[in-house]
């Protein structure tokens, strides 16, 4: 028998089992589309250019979708091969050797994998372009976000799913290699043994979840949140699977022992049926829970960034006009001269345009890197080599009082301080060769202080900045990054047109590309680009949310179909002994607790514990308003629950049409 015979037999098998293969192929195609679309975002120009923190997050999303793809295709394939055990056993009875059956399964795998991968790539390309066009039309950003992909992404997608389908082939071959044909003929009719609840797995699930939650709750700063976000997500995913596999069995067995609940027709059918198939059910429920968590986090965070665009713009640019003066440690007097001359120039330029300065803020500061040891700040020459350096900002009392409108006074050996993590509680602090008596103040230094572990020190006057610089220079003579810089910010009166004209004037003289040792930024000139960037984040959030929602639809539909085929013969037997259709429907409705409530509840708990690490990531984008995120989170949970309810109701009709 040649390969042509086996390939034609494989094609005939696929056609004759189309009722099973069509859902399997559709599922595989959709999963491949999801992974391909997610991976394509790694090469997207918007993702690459807008924020350095986006790329690691999309790498994480791609890895998670890849893991989900492996689990889901193996899950759907196991259902498929289980339904075909009788057919495979018949081949053995008819005289085909196991190597011949393996060849048939090989060609079936080749045909289904080629069709799935090709259709998934083409569908992903078409869907990606159409969906980006639709979102660009709906969101109406200043510049359209273009969908793009690359040959590397295509090769990665093909390689991953060829490997996955290869694993399914090996699994399918193993199902008949160690079984005799007679047993395979009865394979579909054999019920699964009641699963035993494993206390070890249940404890492990709690350990993994607590570990992941703990990382999120105790994360110190946003930069570390980026590096540890992947580990936290991976731990929670593992914990979720173990929790559904082990914890759900404990609950079902507890319900089974409750005679008042269990010995009712609807509950009897639902509980006993789900208990005997809980391993497969648990995987499906865990997949839904993980996808629901992704939808809620992706959409709620990007929605928060978009809604809080004005807030983040104000945090990034505290005043309508903002100027940074880059100084030189060797010439503090020149820095002071430039500092005060700039403020005079700003005042004169604004007045010359017939406007007035309504608000202003200006301060000088020096920045150091190192760490606190005991009651001493220890300088570090090469801060880039430190894993988590503490950033120290030192500024004079005169400027701090001007910033805050306060009237603090300080002795020559006294200082004020703020620590972003409240970790420093000593009454003294040594900087260089000088020890200060310190008193704590609230954060008056900007939201950026919370991005990394930071400390601000207010010293009696500007001469102390130079003394501390000289002490640092004495320890590290080769250091070349020490400077005393300054910030000047101001608002003006006038119309939007007048403010824009003034901003363009300053931008032409001091803006990026103008050269010099000053840098000007305008909130007004940055607003359109800022809203476009935040709208782009919302665009990506909606795109990812739709991807994960499609995955939820897919897993729910396939779960209902697989359960329908498993339950059909049982319900037919029960109908013959007097079970009516209403009871069947009641037993179906009782599964809402598992199919609807449980995944949403667990997903919501995941997102609540993810909030601390998500909040740290939002700080990178300048979002500091917790209420905005909370409202977005609640709204997305309600919206997704409503969508999921509709999905469940529609797919449950498929289940009922199969079993009846």
TrEMBL record:
Record's subcellular location = Cell membrane
The residues that cross the membrane are 21-42, 54-76, 104-132, 152-178, 199-217, 229-252, 284-307, 537-558, 592-614, 626-647
Record Pfam families: FtsX
Q: Main localization of the protein?
A: membrane
Extract the signal peptide range: none
In the bilayer, the protein is annotated as: Multi-pass membrane protein
For this protein, the record's InterPro entries field holds: ABC-4_Integral_Memb_Prot, ABC3_permease_C, ABC_permease_BceB-typ
ABC3 transporter permease C-terminal domain location is 62-174
Keywords noted in UniProt: Cell membrane, Membrane, Transmembrane, Transmembrane helix, Transport
Tell me where on the tree of life, at the top rank, the source sits: Bacteria
Family stated for the protein in its record: Belongs to the ABC-4 integral membrane protein family.
Name of the molecule in the record: ABC transport system permease protein
Species of origin reads Planomicrobium stackebrandtii
Taxonomy of origin reads: Bacteria, Bacillati, Bacillota, Bacilli, Bacillales
């Amino acid at each position: 028998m040649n390969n042509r015979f086996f390939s034609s037999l494989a094609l005939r098998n696929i056609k004759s089992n189309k009722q099973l293969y069509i859902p399997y192929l559709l599922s595989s195609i959709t999963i491949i589309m999801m992974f391909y679309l997610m991976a394509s975002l790694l090469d997207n120009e918007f993702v690459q250019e807008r924020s350095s923190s986006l790329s690691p997050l999309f790498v994480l999303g791609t890895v998670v979708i890849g893991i989900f793809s492996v689990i889901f295709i193996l899950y759907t394939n196991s259902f498929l091969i289980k339904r075909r055990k009788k057919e495979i056993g018949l081949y053995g009875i008819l005289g085909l050797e196991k190597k011949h059956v393996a060849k048939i399964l090989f060609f079936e795998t080749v045909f289904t994998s080629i069709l799935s991968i090709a259709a998934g790539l083409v569908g992903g390309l078409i869907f990606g372009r159409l969906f980006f066009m639709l979102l660009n039309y709906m969101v109406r950003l200043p510049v359209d976000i273009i969908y793009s992909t690359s040959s590397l992404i295509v090769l990665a997608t093909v390689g991953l799913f060829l490997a996955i389908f290869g694993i399914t082939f090996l699994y399918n071959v193993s199902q008949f290699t160690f079984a005799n044909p007679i047993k395979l003929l009865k394979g579909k009719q054999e019920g699964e043994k009641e699963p035993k609840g494993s206390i070890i797995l249940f404890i492990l699930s709690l350990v993994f979840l607590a570990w992941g939650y703990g990382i999120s709750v105790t994360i110190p700063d946003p930069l570390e949140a980026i590096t540890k976000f992947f580990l936290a997500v991976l731990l929670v995913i593992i914990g979720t699977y173990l929790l559904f596999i082990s914890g759900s069995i404990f609950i079902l067995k507890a319900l089974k022992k409750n005679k008042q609940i269990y010995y009712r027709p609807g509950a009897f059918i639902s509980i006993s049926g789900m208990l005997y198939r809980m391993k497969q059910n648990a995987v499906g429920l865990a997949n839904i829970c993980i996808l629901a968590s992704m939808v809620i986090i992706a959409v709620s965070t990007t929605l928060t960034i978009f809604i809080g665009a004005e807030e983040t713009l104000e945090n990034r640019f505290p005043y309508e006009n903002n100027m940074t003066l880059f100084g030189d440690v060797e010439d503090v007097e020149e820095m002071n001269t430039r500092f005060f001359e700039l403020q005079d120039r700003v005042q004169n330029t604004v007045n010359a345009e017939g406007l007035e300065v309504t608000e202003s803020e200006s301060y000088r500061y020096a920045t150091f890197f190192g760490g606190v040891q005991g009651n001493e700040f220890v300088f570090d020459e090469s801060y880039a080599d430190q894993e988590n350096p503490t950033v120290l900002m030192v500024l004079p009392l005169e400027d701090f009082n001007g910033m805050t409108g306060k009237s603090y006074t300080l002795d020559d050996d006294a200082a004020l301080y703020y620590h972003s993590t409240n970790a420093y509680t000593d009454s003294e602090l040594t900087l260089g060769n000088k020890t200060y008596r310190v008193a704590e103040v609230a954060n008056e230094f900007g939201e950026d202080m919370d991005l990394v572990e930071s400390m601000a020190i207010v010293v009696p006057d500007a001469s102390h900045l130079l003394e501390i610089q000289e002490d640092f220079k004495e320890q590290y003579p080769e250091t070349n990054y020490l400077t005393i810089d300054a910030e000047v910010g101001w608002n003006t009166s006038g119309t939007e047109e007048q403010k824009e004209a003034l901003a363009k004037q300053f931008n032409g003289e001091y803006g990026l590309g103008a050269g010099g040792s000053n840098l000007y930024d305008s909130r007004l000139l940055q607003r359109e680009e800022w809203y476009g960037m935040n709208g782009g984040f919302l665009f990506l959030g909606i795109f990812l949310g739709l991807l994960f929602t499609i995955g939820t639809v897919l897993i729910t539909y396939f779960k209902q179909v697989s359960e329908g085929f498993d339950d059909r013969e049982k319900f037919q037997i029960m109908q013959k002994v007097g079970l009516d259709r209403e009871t069947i429907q009641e037993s179906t409705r009782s599964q809402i607790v598992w199919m609807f409530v449980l995944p949403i509840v667990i997903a919501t708990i995941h997102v609540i514990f993810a909030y601390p690490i998500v909040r740290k990531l939002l700080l990178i984008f300048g979002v500091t308003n917790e209420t905005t995120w909370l409202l977005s989170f609640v709204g997305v949970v309600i919206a997704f629950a409503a969508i999921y309810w509709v999905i469940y109701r529609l797919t449950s009709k498929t289940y009922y049409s199969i079993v009846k």
